[in-house]
Fold Mitochondrial carrier domain-containing protein.
Amino acid sequence: MAELEADSPVTNAASATAENVKAFIAGGFGGVCAVLVGHPFDLTKTRLQTAPSGTYTGAIDVVKKILARDGIFGVYRGIVPPLFGVTPIFAVSFWAYDASKKLILTLTDNEGTLSTSQLAAAGFLSAVPTTVVTAPVERAKVLLQACSTSFRQSSKVQGQGLSEQKYKGVAGVLRHMYNEGGLRSVFKGSGATLARDGPGSAAYFAAYEVTKKALTPAGSSPSDLNLGSIICAGGVAGVAMWALAIPPDVLKSRIQSAPKDTYSGILDCARKTIAQDGVAALWKGFGPAMARAFPANAATFLGVEASRKMLDKFM
C-alpha cells in the first residue's frame, strides 16, 4: 500500500483531529489549575454577590466569617462542581477557540495571521458552545457556595448560612435543580452566562495573544516564551476578562441562586437589583474577582501551555 503523502486529505484530517484533541485536553488541565488556585477568591465573590445587603462589610469580612464558621476548608466549599465541571468547560472553551480561529482564517484567507479584532471574535464565538456546560455547573456551584453548615436565618437566598434548605452535596443540588423545574431549572441563568462569557472571552483570548506578542523578543516566536512571560500574559488575560464581566456575573449569580420565578430574565434582575441596592450592587465582588483574576488565569494558561507542549511530544 502506498504511503500517504504528508499533505493528503487523510493526513490533514488526522492532523486536525489531533490538534483538536490536544486543545481539548490542554484546556481541561488548565481549568483544573484555575480552580485549585482561584476557588477561594470565587467563593468570596459569590457570597458578596448573593448575600442580602449588610450581611458583609467586604471581602475580608467574608473570609473571616467563613474561617470562623467552617475553618480553613470552608474556603473550598462548593469546589466539587467546578473541579469536575471546569475540566469540560475549559476543554470546550480552548477547543472552541482554536476551532473559531481556524474558521475565521478560512473565511478571511489571512494566511495564518489574525488581527486583534479577529482574535476577539474567535474568543466570543468560543463562549457559545461553552455556555451549555458552564451554566448548569455554575448554578450548582453558586448554590453550594451560598450554603453554610453552621447556622440558619430566614432568607429567600440559599446560602450565607441564611436558608432553611440545605443541600447534601452535589447530588442534592442536582436533584433540587431538576425537581424545581426540569432542564429549564438546570440551565437557569444561561442567558446571563453568555452575556458574561461572550465579551469576557473576547477580551480574555485577545489580551493573552496580544500580551504574548508584546513579550516576545524580536526574532523569536510566542510559542517559545518562558514560564514567567506565560504567567504574565495569562494574568493579564484574566484581568481583562473580569474588568468586563463583573456586572453580568452579579446578575448571573443572583438569577442562579434565587428561588423560582424571582426574576423573569437578566433585564428584570438588573432592574430589581438596582432598585433595591443601587447601581453599585452590579459591582459587588469586584475586589475578590480581580484579586483572583491574575493568579487563577496565570495558572490556567501555564497549565494549558505546559500540557500542550507535553502532548506535542506524544501526539
User: Anything to note?
Assistant: The chain has nine helices and no strands. The first helix runs from residue 9 to 50.
